[in-house]
Structure prediction request, 570 residues.
Amino acid sequence: MKPLLQLLKRPLLFVAALSFFVNLLLLAPALFMLQVFDRVLTSQSRETLLVLLVGVAVALGLMLVLDYLRSRLQGVAGNLIADQLSPVVAKVMLARTARRAERAPCEGLRDAAALRNLFSSQGLLALFDVPWTFVHVAVIWLAHPMLGMAAAAASVLMLLLAVVNDRITRRDIESLQKEAARATGYLESSMQNAELVQSLGMGEAVIGRWRDLNAGVAALQGPTARKSVAMAALTRTTRQAVQVLLQALGAYLVITGEGTPGILVACTILLGRALVPVEQVVGSWRVLAEGRLAFARLSEVLGAAERQPQRMALPAPKGRLHAEGLVFRPPQGERMILAGVSLSLEPGESLAITGPSGAGKSTLVRLLTGLWRPHAGVVRLDDVDIAQWPREELGPWLGYVPQDVELFAGTVADNIARLGEVDPDKVVQAAQRAGVHALILTLPEGYDTVVDNMGVMLSPGQRQRIALARALYGNPKLLVLDEPNSNLDGAGELALGEALKALRGQVTVVVVTHRSALVQHMDKLLVLEAGRVKQYGPVAEVMQTIRRSGQNTGGAQVVVMPPRPAEKVS
Prediction:
């Protein structure tokens, strides 16, 4: 947060300086009325009235310009948050979501939006104006001590109302934010499974649960809104009441000869000006409270990111992969998914991982890519803890195809180039190495085919093959594939096998699969069961051991799967 605060420091200091002069110029109307009642009306001097009118007009005109400038600077501060903070938060939240065992909603971006709303609200300007309440009260005190004491009491009362408002709404606002995040997160996760929801007729059930969560939000929102509205109404009424009482007190002083009409009018104007910022703060309290909570959460998130040490740039890896004693337990989980898994691959070697469902295969590949961190043990790439590799530096040397393949909005070429600058030669080379070049040429626009929701709808197998080309883009040294043939037809699986065969000795490859068609292209085989290594070694030796013992591996035995029928290009 320090760079952001340094960035915001200058515009906020200018806002504070402009607020000083704006509030100073706001004394002009009160002084004008004081002079009109106590000097002009008694002297009947038209020249004096004209001079006063010109003076107050100049003061008000200058105040208009300065008030406009501070509002613009406030907008600049809000834009700085959008331009500088939001991308940083998005990057941090992306990394945190990738490291978690479950999907996380984008609370950070919502917090950034709340903070921007804070810096764009009138409540922030009111905070700069609140200290001037004491200045206005001091001026009233100088005009008449009794009126000053009354104004001080009124100001203290208004400030107490602001404190009470904070006390009675803070917990409600925090609970409301948590429940709203739960409801939004549930809807976001449901949208990710929209196809399944629609196909199974679960729409009403999903909406019903979301409605129940929203009902919880509404149950909290109602009391919170009622408290906020009640406090705002009470504050407005209190302000009007104390102004009336001050006017009555001023009138009494005029009647008794202890004051003048000018002092009465001027003090009434000053008191109104003194209490307005407090009223604005109370009226904007929800925005201010949400912004404060958002700032606290973002400070924690970004503070943790800033505390990450700066890593020295490392040389390009050769692909030596070593894992020792890997232990992993999901967040808030009791059962270990992996327990003491070890493996070792020299540059250019390949490994097939197999095992029954729930054995920990996908968890293992996430640890090997550095996406997740083990609770115990270490993964080393070229003898360096993979956690020490900055992701932006490691990314070009790593190819990864997850079990659930997703493509990004853009062209096929954009996806293969990993959303970076498209190098046609490298894109075509990656597609050829993945055996998908010919398939891409059959698409309506070839490599320029748009594959988002507004473009061509690709089959799961086509997406999987393009994802393999993306993984091979830029000649990675480590290639990790999680069930890369799960959606492939016969032709696609043959192309995948040929691609893996061509990579032997060039790229370190880790493949999660159940099919012998891929295993036969690997150097080593690791059989996982219940998070533990059941068999590990050269493919021929492991397969011979399994056949010789006739052991039942609980579904971990590699079997030949029949090829799928050929897919048609959309």
Summary: Residues 46-99 form the longest helix (54 residues). The chain has two domains: 2-306, 321-549. Residues 101-105, 552-570 have pLDDT under 50 and may be disordered.
